[in-house]
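Appendix C reproduces, verbatim, an entry submitted by the partner laboratory led by Prof. M.T., so that reviewers can inspect both the input and the predicted structure.
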Amino acid sequence: MVRLTDLPEWEREHLLAKGREAPRFASRPWVRGPALGKRRVAIVTTSGVHRRGDRPFSMIPDTEYRVIPGDTSADMLVMSHVSVNFDRSGFHEDVNVVFPIDRLKELAAAGAIGSVADFHYAFMGAAWPPTRFETKARELAVLLKKDRVDAVLLTPV
């Protein structure tokens, strides 16, 4: 992974400016829920991962997402993330680096979490500004609720 100090000054400033432009929340929208050992957990990632055969993510940043059923095996996942700054080597070694489905299943088997969701969701994270995701986030909230999900593991890439 690249560090900010390793980037050219113009790129470092560009990335830091994005952080300054990120929306600020007036309140804390978090809610309390059951103990972790009783929660149903889904993955939401911006890694651009999807099932082999699904439509790849495009070069035009958008807010489209792909649904990944929980029983999808790692060898059926591909990555079409288009950012030139993205290092895919970790994904090629172990999909769990960006989509930790095997780790979630292990946590469920050990009783650390209640269960693993039937469906997980992947975005391509190079879209900007993040406020463009609000409509899709609301859409996803409905799907997560339908799957009885009460905890989400976010893997921003």
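The mean pLDDT is 85. Additional entries are available on request from the coordinating office.
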